[in-house]
Specification:
It is a single chain. With 192 residues, this protein is α+β, with helices and mostly antiparallel strands. Helices cover 40% and strands 20% of the residues. The longest helix has 18 residues.
C-alpha cells in the first residue's frame, strides 16, 4: 500500500502471468478490473475500492485502500477468534451486493465461456473430476447471470470493526464477471 499524509492507496502491477498461478494475464485484464471495480464502487462505495488511475499498457492499477486499519478475512481466520456473527454479517453483505448488482451491466470481457474456460475453470478445478465438471458446466450455463465478485476468497475481503460490528470490503476484482451468484457463494464457502 502507498500512503500520503491523509490517504492510503493500493498499487497493483500486472505482468503477463500471475505470480503463483499458471494462468496468463493480458493488459485488457487490467482495464477490465478497473471497469468492474468502478461499476461496483459507484453502486457500493463502502464495499469496494475506487479507481484512482489505470494504465492498461503498463499494467498498473491504483486504487483507494479498503483495508486501512482493518485486516483481511484470511488474517482473521488464521489469527483471531471467529464468531457466528462475523459469518452472518459476511453472508448478509454478499447477499446485499448480489441483490443490488442485479441491474448492473458487466464491462465487456468478451465471450463469457472463453473467460470461464481460460481462468475461472482453472480456479475451481475444471477437468479434474467428471462429476465436478458436470456441476461446473451446469453452474456456468445456469441463468440468470449478473455481475458477480468472482473471487471472494478471504485474502480479498477486508474486515473492519466499528462499535463491535464487522463491516466488509472486497477487492482484487480481476475475476468479476457475468455469472451466477451461486459461484460467489460456493467460491467463498470453498475457501473457508
Amino acid at each position: 500500500a502507498l500512503s500520503s499524509s491523509t490517504d492510503r492507496f493500493s498499487l497493483k502491477i500486472r505482468s503477463c502471468r500471475f505470480a503463483q498461478l499458471p494462468i496468463a494475464s493480458t493488459p485488457r485484464d487490467v482495464r477490465y478490473e478497473a471497469e468492474a471495480t468502478s461499476a461496483l464502487a459507484q453502486r457500493f462505495p463502502a464495499y469496494f475500492p475506487h479507481v484512482i488511475h489505470c494504465d492498461e499498457e503498463l499494467g498498473i492499477l491504483i486504487l483507494t485502500d479498503v483495508i486501512g486499519a482493518g485486516q483481511t478475512l484470511e488474517w482473521i481466520l488464521l489469527h483471531d477468534e471467529i464468531s457466528p456473527e462475523l459469518f452472518r454479517g459476511l453472508g448478509s453483505t454478499v447477499r446485499a451486493i448480489h441483490e443490488a448488482a442485479l441491474p448492473l451491466s458487466c464491462p465487456d470481457r468478451g465471450p463469457d465461456d472463453a473467460f470461464f474456460e481460460r481462468k475461472l475453470a482453472h480456479k475451481i478445478g475444471f477437468a479434474c473430476h467428471p462429476a465436478l465438471n458436470r456441476v461446473i458446466v451446469k453452474l456456468r450455463d445456469n441463468e440468470p447471470r449478473q455481475m458477480i465478485i468472482g473471487d471472494p476468497s478471504p485474502k480479498n475481503i477486508g474486515v473492519h470493526y466499528r462499535s463491535g460490528a464487522a463491516s466488509f470490503t472486497f477487492f482484487d476484482l480481476e475475476d468479476s464477471h457475468r455469472g451466477n451468484v451461486v459461484f460467489d457463494v460456493g467460491f467463498l464457502a470453498g475457501h473457508l
